[in-house]
Amino acid sequence: VDGSPDAIASLKTRGIFTATSAQAPDQIAQQAVQLGIQVLNHQKLQKNDFKIPVNLVTQSNVNSYKGWHV
Q: Which helix or strand (DSSP H or E) is residue 10 part of?
């Protein structure tokens, strides 16, 4: 569930999750602000889809995942 703290805890205890895709809310917000500034400055956006990479966190690599906090 987006690499949330609850999902990570479940992975560590080998609960109901076997993996979670970890989005990076800080990177999403940063990209949104940058695009918003471009729009406010009447700059043409170079493309209409923007991708922020995600990481797959599994029971095998969960201990190396730094995570995000609410």
A: helix 5-12
Q: Which two tokens stand for residue 30?
A: 């940063």
> Phi-psi region for residue 47, left (φ > 0), alpha (ψ -120 to 50) or beta?
beta
Interatomic CA distance for residues 33 and 30, integer angstroms: 5
pLDDT at res. 70 = 57
Return the amino acid letter for 35.
L
Give the separation between CA 70 and CA 66, rounded to whole angstroms.
Answer: 13
- Judged against a pLDDT cut of 70, whether residue 25 lies above it is answered with yes
The span from the CA of 32 to the CA of 44, in Å, is: 15
